[in-house]
Amino acid sequence: MNKFQSLTSKVIPLPKNDVDTDQIIPAQYLTSTSRHGYGENLFRRLRDTEADFPLNQAQFKDAEILLTGYNFGCGSSREHAVWAIAGAGIKVVIAESFADIFSNNSAKNGLLLLCLPKNVIERLLKKAESGDLTVTVDLEKQVVLVKEGLSNEKHSFEYDPFRKHCLLNGLDDINYILSHGDDITKFRERNVKSWLVSPSRNNEETLAIVGTKN
Length: 214
What we know:
Layout: E1 6-14, H1 21-24, H2 44-49, E2 65-68, H3 80-87, E3 92-95, H4 100-109, E4 112-115, H5 118-128, E5 134-138, E6 143-148, E7 151-156, H6 161-169, H7 173-178, H8 181-190, H9 203-209
């Protein structure tokens, strides 16, 4: 998983609420268990039926931040929705709220989701629709900076401390556990049961039994 600290990008506006996972990646495109190749069909049904859909517009090409309404990612639990967003080059989604399962899937795949108040979302969406909104997302400081003239408008956001640590350091759940390998080994060594130790068994044999030695 890639590290995330800060990102400055133009914003893609998606002024919709209750965008579900089937809108994000329609079911007919779920053709692989690999996480790769889904980005090209992100919002495929919307892109094919709405000529002015943001991802069809050249002005939003290469933008890495998506801005949308409330309850984004509702519907099914398909992890492919996160894969499609990340595969399209989007690294941050800003919304009023997110569906729980989608939030968990995003955290495990390094996609940063952050919430801002409704009035802020609505105002920023209007500005983004003109193709003239660029923001900076700083995860370390947990702020969104919006360039307004010669000054920056600042909005703070909450983020789970554990997920923040993992994202800042590029750790998925398995890598997080492995990063504490020395502590796990020491704990196991301290808690070797007495009945595992015998005069006929040396220390290396004992550690191999409890899983602290390969």
